[in-house]
């Protein structure tokens, strides 16, 4: 089936993807059959490509007419750098170039999360050189690491997260690593450009629920710890960081009295067993993971301004429909916002991912 | 609780909600708002803050969930990763006078399961909260209440929304914005208020969206759900007309007639004030003139 090439961001989706207000949290929920990768890429595209939503021509310029310098930090727990880079390229977004320009940072939470720091990097699988299109959830796909490679080669600039210790201390170290990257990205823009521009950093965290599932309450990481961690990532100027050891204080002096990130986007799994077994209306025996995951996801939806829910078509698999997208208000939705953005409303649409990675979004029956 | 008549409820319960929402007179020391993703408590919190601003009460907001200071709050305490004693101290510091202890308002997400690490013999946090609370508001969106009522009116099972639907990938249900021409925005507050005497009051109110009234409005904006035009049953509106039957006969009673009618002692009245059930089936009968008493009949 040949379809016309679609614009990178379908016009129906544009209001949800482009205008993200300050200090807001957006939750994208996914199920196994309807993953959120394409939508995350649209968020990246909207933030990094200034021409979105206004004109169709792609101006490779970071500066908008409002003088805002938009940057993105992507923390991915389930998918590797190569995956994101190749998928973004299909959309016309060169993440590697943006990375070198300092407008984009990728944090790999997958490859060496449980490796001990300082240990030798695992040998890259030979098959990886050939495989360019990557399966989605395979844990063996590491970023190739060739020790003799030049500085700017693929994967070398990628920050990899490591879990150290247990519980809150482990999360604190992750938080520190991520916030250091965020600050690096912010300052890079300052040195490149005139300095007094407003910088907006969009933090995208892909499936942090992996951390909850991998660590769990046994290791002292439950839903509330995870939520506190995410709250810490959103903002650093809180006093409670100052209570931590002295090295944290040095970091804080770097941070001005402003928010670390402009807004945050999270993708979370919302598959039925993870969400409904433990929900307040269910009567059956539940596992700790189910309870914690439900608490984590529902709690974050309560904190979110907007919840975008992806799911399979209710009536079964169809050849020309990939899934259903529903946008809803989260618990932190404010009425004031709806006044200026009258176009924003709760809606449910169908989407179809074409062979060329373009996405067609349409109403039912259209 | 017997179904009180509507005008009585209108007078008393509207006064009560007005007192409760403006946190006056120590009507309710601990109010618990049970919200869900279908109807978050944030609009109701804003309404509370708006009213306290009008009556100039100091508001301290203890946040476990947001880093953003809500509009109109006097002091803002982030409780992230703090011990409860530290939070209590910060809250106390927020007040100028040391003897602080105003009414408390608390939000609980009722769609979150209780955490897994609790000791198995202790009650869940929700049980403790609802036990301690003096007023409980359960929040629902008006559109869903209307859909559920429509189903109940037709003796169908009431539909459920959001997480309750238990559908793969669904967290938040979809809100129906309009019904006919009228918009169905608004929050239904299901109230349970416990009085000091031990009696309780149950009522359902509706809070219109904040856009419909000015922030300075002092007049009560909350109404009874039963008074809402979309919720009220259509036949109830015809009730007032039924009293006035147009007829050529005078069917109503004058005051004198009513008094005399109330004075009539009915024949069985005597039996009701008898000395308990032991008296049984005694027949009260006065012989009339025309009665012919038959002796022989008793002998059979």
UniProtKB/TrEMBL annotation, chain A:
It comes from the Eukaryota. One of its GO terms (biological process) is tRNA wobble uridine modification. Pathway: tRNA modification; 5-methoxycarbonylmethyl-2-thiouridine-tRNA biosynthesis. GO terms for cellular component: elongator holoenzyme complex. Belongs to the ELP6 family. This is Uncharacterized protein.
Automatic annotation (TrEMBL), chain B:
It is found in: Cytoplasm; Nucleus. The keyword Cytoplasm applies. Pathway: tRNA modification; 5-methoxycarbonylmethyl-2-thiouridine-tRNA biosynthesis. Residues 269-300 are annotated as: Disordered. InterPro entries: Elp5, P-loop_NTPase. Keywords: Cytoplasm, Nucleus, tRNA processing. GO terms for cellular component: cytosol; elongator holoenzyme complex; nucleus. Residues 287-300 have a biased composition (Acidic residues). Its main location: cytoplasm. The keyword tRNA processing applies. GO terms for biological process: tRNA wobble uridine modification. Transmembrane segments: none annotated. GO terms for molecular function: tRNA binding. CDD domains: Elp5. Belongs to the ELP5 family. This is Elongator complex protein 5.
